[in-house]
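User: quick one, fold this
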Amino acid sequence: MSDTGEPDFSPGDVTPQTVQAADITPVITISPDDPAFQAPSIMGGVDYSGGDLPVLGQGGLSNVAGKVWNLPNTALGLAYGGAGYLAGQVSHALGGQEQAPGIQLGNNAIQFTNNPFGGVSAITIGNAEVFGNRALMGSDGQPIGAPHEEQHTYQGEQLGPLYLPSNLLGGITAEVLGGNWHAPQNWNETGPQQNPPVPWPQGDQK
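Assistant:
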């Protein structure tokens, strides 16, 4: 004790302690109710709501590799959708179409909406989806047909430069044998038309 009655702490009374980094174990808790935990990746198309973190082959490195493999198609799709976007802006300004064209992200792609180059419904080239003026929009702001078109992006990520030849060959085959581009003979359309939609035909789905 000091003369004043206060505790007397001198340097000699303190024994230095060494704490190793290995002694500290961080604890990170992510609640399943956290919206960031539940939300799927916009461009990856991976849903983590089941509690699984992304791994190779589920939105990880293979997903990036797929997009790189699909890049030539995507570049063509962006050019096509971009040209339609400009044409749509002019058409909208002149009163040719009611809704202005838009660009957004969703369903594993860059989406062009209200686009005069989208045809009757939509056209997907690479990771670019071009939706026509008559494509219906959902309450969430996504086109109703987006889940279908998303499957074509996965086809492109698997086939790469072979995607467009496969798409054209399948479509022509379906037109000749089935009388319709989306007939069962088109292997590129059979899977996306199943419920739920998948990239390629699955025997246990309808």
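User: anything notable?
Assistant: Residues 71-93 form the longest helix (23 residues).
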